[in-house]
Amino acid sequence: MQIPAYPTETIIAYTTVPLKLGFGAADEVGYEAKRLGAKKVLIFTDKNLRATGHPGRLKKIIEKEGIGIDIYDDIHVEPTDKSFDKAANDLRGNEFDLYVAIGGGSTIDTTKAVNLLITYPAPILEYVNKPIGNARPVPGPLKPTLVLPTTSGSGSEATPASVLDILDLKVKTGISHPHLRPTMALIDPLLTVSTSPEITASTGMDVLTHALESYTSMPYDKRKRPDHPSQRAAYIGSNIISDIFCIKAIEIVGKYLRRAVADPYDLEARWHMMLGSTLAGIGFGNSGVHIPHSMAYPIGGMVRDYRPAGYNVEEDMVPHGQAVTITAPAAFKFTAPVWPEKHAHAAELLGLNPGGMSVTEAAMALSDEIIQLMKDIEFPNGLSELGSTEADIPQIVDGTLKQQRLLVGCPRRVGEKELTQIAKESMKYW
Fold first, then answer.
1. What is the sign, positive or negative, of the torsion defined by CA atoms of 173, 185, 100, 33?
2. Contacts of 2 (CB under 8 A, 6+ apart)
3. Whole-angstrom Cα distance, residue 233 to residue 210?
4. Distance from chain centroid for Cα 315
5. In terms of C-beta density within 10 A (0-12 exposed, 13-18 middle, 19 or more buried), how is residue 314 classed?
6. Cα gap 130→32, rounded to integer Å
7. What share of the chain is helix, strand, coil (3-state, %, to 5)?
8. How far apart are CA 422 and CA 290, in angstroms?
9. What is the pLDDT of residues 144-172, one digit of tens each?
10. φ and ψ at residue 210, rounded to 5 degrees
């Protein structure tokens, strides 16, 4: 039987990462390393996390299995093309058959990139997404990677992407390919209790934007069908499978983020936020994101005179969770009219009581629910609090328009005019 030729996509391509979630999951890292046949392991972490003792404890667990192991801790928070290249150059020539990443999104993304650059050497821009890079496909499988996230936010443990700043262009971008997805995730909420309230707030809002953007992204069956299965994008658009994960992640953030920020030892809240992070990662790692993440990349890349409270850093930076959230209220106000049912549902998941509201009114209230959550967790109030001014808007918009791999997910046509308005509305919310 011949399959009819459809102009739009008809196939949901779904992939995710095997995982273990729960208190003490990190203690099984030695078992998993041995199961994967590892003889020489490299742990990636950062210096701040190494000081907590977690990486050293994992090293001992792996060594008990008779496996050789080293630790690399020169990880740059909010990684760059230069930091990726430095890490790859530092490690090139060493023989490791398994990588273990323990840390937040910066550490996990660095591990993915270094694995790629060592396995298939090439200039980093060869792999970076168009139009900034050449979007060269990853030639083949990478070495196995176990990831142990220590923040409830990036979802990188479940995604096929690695995000970085291109320093010369002052813009963030990414590398996306199914081969970048980790081999397995060990998700242990106990690894997050040392996280500051500010980091908990920022990474938790990253969970929310992942889930909201994924849930409201352009549906897979409204996109052009690829000419060949190998050309299908890593992010295919919203679909019934990813929606399941996103809905639960939004609900979890609405219920537990305030608690996790207020009390680092609220283990119930920590457990659920780790779950929410991974669920959102599975969701957007399949369907993709749109405006807030697209705008976050130039916002993060253009940082000046801003050092976030709660982060032990020695240079200006906008944490990714702050960068993606800061335009979210304005962005979802823009997208709500074209898909009011989903936006209204998301608002209810965050706590809205729609009462006698129409669906459209409830959809527009999603922005208000996000702003209230931002207030409750003492989040920065708009772009102006991150050091941006209206004079920066043209450059923010220009950098956003370069993120076409993400903007194609927007459910409403968006261009320079619309992005400029969103940026203006994002300057200050209350």
1. negative
2. none
3. 18
4. 22
5. exposed
6. 36
7. 50, 10, 40
8. 13
9. 999 999 988 888 888 888 989 888 887 77
10. -55, -50
pTM over 0.90? The answer is: yes
Element (H, E) at 246: helix 240-262
Helix 267-287, helix 240-262: angle, nearest 10 = 150
**Tokens 């990662």 belong to which residue?**
281
pLDDT of residue 5: 67
Q: With H, G, I as helix, E, B as strand and everything else as coil, classify residue 105.
A: helix
Rounded to an integer, what distance in angstroms lies between the CA atom of residue 214 and that of residue 249? 11
Q: Which residues pair with 161 in a beta bridge?
A: 176
- Three-state SS for 16? coil
Is the sign of the CA dihedral 341, 342, 344, 345 positive or negative?
A: positive
pLDDT digits (tens, 9 = 90+) for 85-126: 999 999 998 889 999 999 998 999 999 999 999 999 999 999
Residue carrying structure tokens 């742990």 = 43
CA angle (289 as vertex; 311, 111 as ends), nearest 5: 50
Residue 1 pLDDT: 46
Can you list the domains of the chain with their CATH numbers? 25-187 (3.40.50.1970), 197-425 (1.20.1090.10)
Four-residue CA torsion sign, 38, 164, 51, 181: negative
Under-70 pLDDT residues of the chain: 1-5
Distance between CA 378 and CA 363 in Å, rounded? 24
Q: What are phi and psi of 102, to 5 degrees?
A: -125, 115
DSSP alpha helix (H) spans, 288-415: 291-301, 320-325, 328-335, 340-349, 359-364, 366-376, 393-401, 404-407
φ/ψ region of 40 (left if φ > 0, alpha if ψ in -120 to 50, else beta) reads beta
- Count CB-CB contacts under 10 A for residue 93: 7
